[in-house]
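Posted in: Structural Biology > Protein-Ligand Complexes

Title: Requesting predicted complex, iron/sulfur cluster in pocket

I'd be grateful if someone could produce the 3D structure tokens for the following input. Sequence and ligand are given below.
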Amino acid sequence: MKYTTAQHRRAEGRAGSYVWATRSAAIAFLDPDAVAVLDEFTGGRDAEAWMGADEASKERRQSFDALAALGLLEPAEFALPLTPDLPAMPFPLGTLVLNVTNKCNLSCTYCYEYGEDRIATPDSKGPALMSAETARGSVDLLFNNSAGRRNVSLTFFGGETLLNFPVIRETVEYAETRARAEGRRVSFALTTNATLLSEEVITFLTQHHFGVNISIDGPRETHDAHRAFASGKGSHAMIVPKIRALIEANRAAKGRPIGARVTVTAHSQDVRGIHDHLVNELGFDSVGFAPVTSAPGRDYALSGENYWTLLRGFSELADDFVAAAIANRHHAFSNLNDVLRELHHGVNKAHPCGAGLGLLGVSTAGEIGLCHRFVESGRHEVGSLSRGIDEDRRKAFLEAGHISTKVVCHTCFARPLCSGGCYHEAQVRYNDASQPNLHSCEWIRAFMDLGLQSYARIMDENPAFFARYEESA
Ligand code: SF4
Ligand code: SF4
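-- Reply #1 --
Done. Output follows.
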């Protein structure tokens, strides 16, 4: 039978190549002999004839079988169709995101909740604050729809989440009580702009082992350019002492890492400077950069050269990360950390994220959406607390967003991890959440290459580094 080299991506290591197979998402080290075999099958050739019947055939068969098992050699006739199969539905929930308020005390220019790219329908805004009753109903929804999972998590989101702190506190107590009664575990996470981090709030968050993500864009000038109060006054000076107090209390309590979430715009391109401010001056444990989600044409939107400037900054941070990994030191650059973990685990995504699958969002009014960014958009509603999850709508969305429908992605090596990218971004860009985010493919592929090259460099020098991902599997 005729076999051919399957789609893959390589990064060169010291003594061979690290190869990432697109179809199987396996990542493997190949020595030069194995690479040569792989190359011999480029364009296709008869496998039996290649293996031959002479003395060396046994060895050739072994290397052929090993490459085929990794998904690096495949029958030439092997048509690609990615099957549109969904996992058994209803898929058990793992995480529920509660939009506990749609109010905010800041007026960030790029905010998808309040800005020009908001997808909520104009008349759909529910109450400003989620009631305790709706929050309890959300906890029940999570526990009742997560069969088979011992661990579940609740994420609190906004608006500015801490504007509804009393309900958060009550909800945490309710969820912990219910988890204890059922012999399960519930964990909590929260995203905040840090303006309302009081001593009381900090004590509560550390006591309940919250994973805290703080929206902060960097040093004062960069941050204040977009993250300001309605008066136009920037928020950096106000939040810095509060963040320091939280990080200090969290360290003392040996809490979970405190993360910074940076929105990168056309006006904030110095990612290394931003990273260094957040880690060295403020003490964050992790820093994640998210390119701003926006329709084209906004003055802060990223385009062309901005993406490449961003990539150069990521590349500098990746060098620092690799050096730290080789020396067994922690580095805070979470975008790279996430890609390395996923490469190492062989993650192969049929959907870009958990939205609609293991994760759903709930609005202040109790409407259920695909994720926190889709609540109140009407079009993406998948039920309500009173009616329960609308499994037909959920399934229809997951079928439409499945990688099998994104034909243009089928020949892309970044597919196992990208899978078309964020639905919300696609909704904002193309008015269709199921479209792949084709405006940023080159950038995504370049970042995946950076991840693969970093993987190779660390594997070459300190393979023991990857044990941390096995522990967290
Ligand atoms: S959206 Fe672009 S980068 Fe992502 S998998 Fe599809 S083609 Fe590849
Ligand atoms: S759709 Fe986008 S914003 Fe929503 S969970 Fe997925 S990646 Fe996150």
